[in-house]
Amino acid sequence: MDDGAERFARARKILLRTYDLTAVAIGLAFGFGALDLSAKAGPAVAAGLTGLALWFLWRIQRMTRDGLQGTAAVRDVVVNGVVAAGLTLVMFLSPGWFMVAPFWAAAASLALRSTRQVAALCAATAAFTALPVTLTGDDVGWYSWPVTTLLLAIVTGLSAFTYLSGKWLMEILREAEIAQESQARLAVTEERLRIARDLHDLLGHQLSLIAVKTELAIRVVPVDAGRAQEELRDVQRSARSALREVRATIRGYRDPSLDGELVSVGGVLAAAGTACDFPAVPPELPAEQGTVLAWVVREAATNVLKHSRARNCSITLVTTASAVTLTVRNDGVPRRAPGDIPGDDGPGDGLAGLSSRVEAVGGRLSAGPEEPGCFAVVAELPLVPVQSLA
């Protein structure tokens, strides 16, 4: 699982845990209410009603998860509503059970389609719950039921709003995950189109020339063998030229440029939420050193994305008369056991291969934590040929 998908999954898990904690809190309230029920109606009745309430909580949590996914069934809403109505009437014995109906209404709102339906559900739930609240009160007046209904409607509406906000957040997470996957596929498609476009521009003229020259050679063979041979030599030269250009193009794809890699890495890190500063490449930097440093930038940026939660990443390039030093430094490195972070008790496979590239041109690569939470990759390359270093 890549880093983005892992973050989405973690956010969904945290969101679901908040609903589980709500159910646990209400379950504890049922437990305390059972003590009151036991004193008024006997232990058997209290145990039976508490068991029914816990079963009701389990069904509500299942309906909540289905509602967050947009798959809540009407049958579950109705069955849970009937159970909630029955448990609400327990308020005649213990007033603490008034939270049953608002809790059911909040979960049921996830299955509704419009704001009007949610408002009607909350109003009806509040009006029904207000009856036992009013009738069990000590001072019952003509205003008691409307006022109680209004207060319960506010409580129920806020509960429903909280649950609907969670559903809205879940939908945003799902859409963001889909958008990230689509962006990755689009990037691959664009790269394929770019390669196809380059190959077309590269080979189109040469292949057309080869086709014309070959056709001409075929026509002149019977009348002028010498000219036909000349045309075939042109075909041979064109084919070899096309082959050289294809090889050079493929080498260019394989060996990244430092300029292009810095821009690419900056864009990728910015998309991941990491601010990145990178320098301008001096024009006098030799192509060989630039290619090796481009690989350093690519591997270091990969480690930033895979092994950290970086918020800032800086890339510096210092050039002297005899050497060039590239440093990639990032924060957001979690605390782990030695060896978990590449460079800490031994580099990872990527850095090991990168070290070989750097050493092949006479350079030196170091990677490791500099301070708590920070990691740096430093590559130092000579600006003179390797043979002259001896």
TrEMBL record:
Q: Where is this region: Disordered?
A: 331-353
Q: Which sequence ranges are marked TM in the entry?
A: 14-35, 41-60, 72-90, 119-137, 143-164
SUPFAM superfamilies linked: ATPase domain of HSP90 chaperone/DNA topoisomerase II/histidine kinase
- Identify the residues that the record assigns to the Signal transduction histidine kinase subgroup 3 dimerisation and phosphoacceptor domain, covering every copy: 191-257
An example of a Pfam family matching this protein is HisKA_3
Kindly state which keywords UniProt assigns to this record, in alphabetical order.
Kinase, Membrane, Transferase, Transmembrane, Transmembrane helix, Two-component regulatory system
InterPro entries in UniProt: HATPase_C_sf, Sensor_HK_TwoCompSys, Sig_transdc_His_kin_sub3_dim/P
Name of the protein described by the UniProt record: Signal transduction histidine kinase subgroup 3 dimerisation and phosphoacceptor domain-containing protein
